[in-house]
Amino acid sequence: MRLYLLAINPTDSVTEGFLPAAARLGLDVTVLTDQPERHRGRYAAGVEVLECDVRDFRAVITRMSSHHTPDAVFTNSDHLQTQAALAAEYFGLPGKSWQAALRVKDKAQMRRHLAASGTGTVWSMEIGPGEVPAAADVPYPCVVKPREGVASEDVVLVHAPEDLLLHCKEIQARRPGAALVVEEYLRGDLHTLETLGDGAVRHVLGGFRTELSAPPHFIEKRSTFVPAHPEPVVAQILTQLDALGIGFGICHTEFVVHEGRARIIEVNYRAIGDQCDLMLAELLGIPLFERVLRTHLGQALPAELDVRRDGVARIDWPCADRAGTLTAAPAATDLIVDGVRLVYRPLRAVGERHELYHTNRDYLGVVRAVGTDPAAVDRVVAGFLADQHWEITP
Question: Can you tell me the distance from the alpha carbon of 241 to that of 244, in angstroms, rounded to the nearest whole number?
Fold first, then answer.
């Protein structure tokens, strides 16, 4: 059976998660990408890499129809969900609703749709490319962000009209042609909900509690696994996901809770990233990546998933605090300490120079820890981080 996987840049989710899962399922894999040289030589033998303008669903359909007949179409990219959904529909294959994929990728459209459904109203305003916002009409504090952005890139907390105008101008200079969204600042602790469905059955896999950097930016610094959020909170989020048409495959939803009210920040119609998905699969003790691919092959999910419920997990991202060249950093590490399995992986090579981005592009590495004792997990991670040294030379 032939799986087409759409990708832009290589990611750990694909390299360490979905492609090994496809191999275990015995699938023949063709990766379609607009950056083939970044993918070739990175994967196990037998994974075919073909160049394609994957942002254009017509090019994707043409490339598939002139190559091997597809049995499944899949992507874990934020940017390619609509294209993959349209290609799957064209070939009569299981897949996500392209309308739902588009609806959640476009943050302004998501806000409009939730408001129209009556499931979630957030004050928001869309700003077209080059337009100037009516800053006096905005409730402050507010958040400005690209309408179709990812990874907290160019997401900024704003407190006054003059700051809003300044930040909009700066973002538009960096992203000519991009539309922006200004919306009210949603107070509350940041959480995630991870779900997996086949269109008929949906499982809640748990979620994370996420700690952010200090304002005005929103860099995720640490996430702690939450086996089950309070039922009223989960019910509110699932109602909003239903209104958006989200129910097929894996989905990562970010939300805040304030005074019992759960409000969606954004919906990423893919697996949670930055190695949280790798940790989640280990923590739950299920073949998570295979389960995801099976839904795209048309295989129903079981009514119950036999997941572990005794696991504790935490993930930390050491982060650059200045621009410069990384001149010293720890190597990849695997440890078992006091019953805690700790994995550290570098995300930036020694010798690389980077600017300061105020996003997850500032990550220097990732520390994953899984165990059964929360105090032990925290102690082992804290001890590991205290012993490491990262040096950035301006």
Answer: 5
